[in-house]
UniProtKB/TrEMBL annotation:
Residue ranges constituting the UDP-N-acetylglucosamine 2-epimerase domain according to the UniProt record: 25-360
Highest taxon above the source species: Bacteria
Protein name: UDP-GlcNAc3NAcA epimerase
Molecular function terms, GO-annotated: isomerase activity
Similarity comment text for this entry: Belongs to the UDP-N-acetylglucosamine 2-epimerase family.
Spans traversing the lipid bilayer: none
InterPro entries for the chain: UDP_GlcNAc_Epimerase_2_dom, WecB-like
Record-linked SUPFAM superfamilies: UDP-Glycosyltransferase/glycogen phosphorylase (SSF53756)
Keywords from the UniProt entry: Isomerase
PANTHER family (alphabetical): UDP-N-ACETYLGLUCOSAMINE 2-EPIMERASE
Length: 368
């Protein structure tokens, strides 16, 4: 079966790695990179580290307004569908690349497979919520990471083609954590950060907060963004912040203090896994990183009012914080009672790639 797969943003490369490997054992995949993310440290590095096949097409759409970016992807993907005549099209997650791919295929009556279907924050102001709702409602097969996602779809009347496969990011973590530990232990993680960024003050394992910030709802509001940096500068441990290019641009116009904050360039996946697993806590507004912290048993504080990954909140492994200086400080510096609690297996067994392949090839059936 010939599948056309759309990727374009950092988290999609990380999700694609295990799936492409599994699917290509017995099937044909044509890979389209939309070019939504294009810096080497937002794109190429993941292909190199994770052995993702070279894309057959790169649309090179780059950055732009939602309308311009999505329209340009839609046009490019449509052309490729007409040329390649695939049996189906697969999209991951909730970015503009996801929606463009799903919409192009749906209009041409090509079956749409949505990996990470059914997630909801119930905040329709988020571009991701808009993208995922629209994508779910035009998808033919909805490959869900959790039972919560299956239940969310049911509430919207979607039951046909819904399959719980477990979370594919869990597959990627399990396949790479030993490799990351091998590559970065014995202080080599710190050497690499210095090599890439120049001298920084010394930080020790388990004695830093690992932070990432990139959500539009936080970065596009100057007051919120300033509050986040103010809170970070007043925390009791240094904050290591691999900074997303979106946020880097936006803080250039803001008067934010950097005391206690070590800003570095975005890092590759293996170093990120190592840093996550050895952090005292992760502080983030990322979707993927909340889960990785959970998989690696690192406590997390999420700088948002909602999370789609509600399972991580159980026993306070992950805690939500409003963007308020006092609240961020108290949530981050909370007592870590979670460390005494086991984690239920809410994200599957780490074999989502295989289950997604089975579901696609067998019309929705997976071997239990
Ligand atoms: C996108 C997704 C978001 C996802 C995130 C993962 C949408 C609407 N948003 O957000 O859901 O969580 O990716 O990281 O699809 N930029 C660069 N170099 C790059 C890429 C981006 O400099 O390689 C800068 C540009 O200034 C660009 C800005 O980052 O305008 C935002 O990029 P964009 O892809 O539009 O959205 P993200 O914030 O990355
Ligand atoms: N990530 C990375 N390097 C970084 C920051 C994040 O490899 O400097 C990885 C992170 O480990 C996770 C993914 O990128 O696997 C999450 O992507 P992001 O936070 O950009 O998007 P989201 O998951 O919020 O959509």
């Amino acid at each position: 079966m010939k599948l056309l797969t759309i990727i374009g943003a950092r988290p999609q490369f990380i999700k694609a790695a295990p799936f492409s490997e599994e699917y290509r054992k017995n099937n044909e995949e044509v890979l389209i990179h939309t070019g939504q993310h294009y810096d080497a440290n937002m794109s190429d590095i993941f292909f190199d580290e994770l052995g993702i096949p070279k894309p057959d097409y790169n649309l090179g759409v780059g950055s732009g307004s939602h309308g311009k970016q999505t329209a340009s992807m839609l046009e490019g993907i449509e052309e490729i569908i007409l040329k390649e005549k695939p049996d189906g099209l697969l999209v991951y997650g909730d970015t503009n690349s996801t929606l463009a791919g799903a919409l192009a295929a749906s209009k041409l009556h090509i079956p749409v497979y949505h990996v990470e279907a059914g997630l909801r924050s119930y905040n329709k102001l988020m571009p991701e919520e808009q993208n995922r709702i629209l994508t779910d409602h035009i998808s033919d097969m909805l490959l869900c990471p959790t039972q919560t996602a299956v239940d969310n779809l049911k509430k919207e009347g979607i039951t046909a083609g819904v399959v719980n496969t477990g979370d594919i990011m869990y597959d990627t973590v399990l396949r790479n954590i030993d490799i990351a530990n091998e590559k970065y232990s014995k202080g080599l993680w710190f050497d690499e950060i210095v090599r890439e960024n120049g001298e920084i003050s010394k930080i020790s394992e388990n004695e830093y907060y690992l932070a990432t910030i990139h959500r539009a709802e936080n970065t596009d509001n100057p007051e919120k963004l300033s509050n986040i940096f103010k809170a970070f500068s007043e925390l009791d441990k240094p904050v290591l912040l691999p900074l997303h290019p979106r946020t880097k641009k936006l803080i250039e116009n803001l008067e934010v203090g950097m005391k206690n904050i070590i800003v570095i360039k975005p890092v590759g996946y293996l170093l990120m896994l190592y840093l996550t697993s050895n952090a005292y806590m992760v502080v983030t507004d990322s979707g993927g990183l909340q889960k990785e912290a959970y998989f690696l048993k690192t406590p997390c504080t999420t700088l948002r009012d909602q999370t789609e990954w509600v399972e991580t909140l159980e026993n306070s492994w992950n805690v939500l914080s409003k963007i308020d200086v006092k609240e961020i400080k108290s949530k981050v510096q909370r007592e870590l009672t979670c460390l005494q609690h086991p984690q239920p297996k809410s994200f599957g067994e780490g074999n989502a790639a295989l289950k997604i392949c089975e579901a696609i090839v067998n019309g929705g059936k997976i071997n239990e």
